[in-house]
Amino acid sequence: MAVRSALRTVGVVLAGGVGTRVGLGTPKQLLKIAGKPIIEHTLAVFESAAEVDDVIVLMTPGYVADVEAIVSARGFRKVSAVIEGGLTRNDSTRNALAHLGDEECNVLFHDAVRPLVSPRIIRECVNALRSYEAVDVAIPSADTIVVVDDAEQITEIPDRSRLRRGQTPQGFRLSTIRRAYEVAWQDPGFKATDDCSVVLKYLPGVAIHVVEGSEHNMKVTAPVDLFIADKLFQLGSATAEPLASPAAYSEALRGRVAVVFGGSYGIGAGIVELLESYGAKVFSFSRSSTNTHVERADDVRDALEQAHRDGGRIDYIVVTAGVLTTGELAKVDDATIEEMIGVNYVAPVQIARFGVGYLEQTKGQLLLFTSSSYTRGRGGYSLYSSTKAAVVNLTQALADEWLGLGVRVNCINPERTATPMRTKAFGVEPAEDLLDAGQVARSSVDVLVSEITGQVIDVRRPVATVATGGGAAEDVAAQVEAAEEQAAVEAAREHDKS
Prior knowledge:
Blueprint: E1 9-15, E2 32-33, E3 36-37, H1 38-48, E4 54-59, H2 64-74, E5 79-84, H3 89-100, E6 106-111, H4 119-128, E7 134-140, E8 147-148, E9 154-156, E10 164-173, H5 174-184, H6 195-202, E11 208-212, H7 223-235, H8 246-253, E12 257-261, H9 266-277, E13 281-285, H10 287-290, H11 297-311, E14 316-319, H12 334-362, E15 365-369, H13 382-401, E16 408-414, E17 417-418, H14 420-426, E18 435-436, H15 437-448, E19 455-459, E20 467-468, E21 471-472, H16 476-493
Parallel strand pairs: 1-4, 1-6, 4-5, 7-11, 12-13, 12-14, 14-15, 15-16, 16-19, 17-18
Antiparallel strand pairs: 2-3, 6-10, 7-10, 8-9, 20-21
Helix pairs in contact: 5-6, 9-15, 11-12, 12-13
């Protein structure tokens, strides 16, 4: 099929439902997960998608102003209109088509209550619309599907290798979806639950291409979905793409000023070395090299003041300092508790407090470090796991608080890493079982020069892709299980990253 020239792409976010199945009388898209209304998460993905030019929202009647307030508060520039949806999904589509007018474009219809849609899915839908007039998103079915009759008896068990579970967005050439509905509205028995089914029935000659979806792209429908989605946001990770060349790093970092707490060895030392090699001026502070105790407010304040005074500005603050002492909580002494909480959690809090003013001046970034132990507490690691979980929550909270200041906050989550301290603590280990500290440092620098914020960035050795149902698919359960197994191993062998 011939590839057409790119058209303007409009995202249509369908938010016309009310949360009856979650037991509420208010629209479920206004419920909060991960601290924000569901629809805010969804709009943020479309706002950041380079392939999307414009966004309109079809909202439940009576709640348009609520969405307009969210759009205004978050500064979503692509949202050009918030209009009332209809009583049904098809009625909302009718309102959207009326609003879109006659100029040809690509249209992506997406459920507002699928807040975990990925940029990859949006990108592939838009790319597919260069060659196809209709595009759906679907994933293989890992479960056996049964067909039952009115007596709840099985009448058929289809071959699941050909079955897919539909998701959104569903993408169309505007003229195609408009033509399909014009035919459908002439049918007295017209009834459909989604837009692709309208094209399939009323424009049978139009091929509908399928883009692979994701298990993460779930629809919040039942009460348990709220919990699952919230947990996926908490555990979600992002990536920062490397720049094209060493020259690009030098261009991005030359003249910048960075402060690294815990930069005397290991990952911190690697970050210092890399930043300096690209032309940044770096101030490194640690207990061993500068007698800087990161858990002490005065030490942190003095270090930042010195860096700003001598460097003239502060663009990045990196906190790799951390301590680990294992043991049953009832047997841990007061000094150990004070040190663990102080270095692992109080220190990032103090550094954030005293550093945000400097970072606001440069629109800079605070980069923290966690551990895979944050996902689940384990015996013997109660203090370590809980402080590392606190660092993740601190990252996400500060990213929200500082969004209006233009200050980014992210968190690196490295797999166990080969460092001199690790060798001292655990002896010689197989090299293939450990990350190279330089790899973690490089990933950290990639995050510093990126525009992402509020993200946990996993740094891991490559793992095999999970496949289900005869095709590649992201299997959340398998990923979580693998992550927990990995965390269990790492927790048993963790080391001091300071």
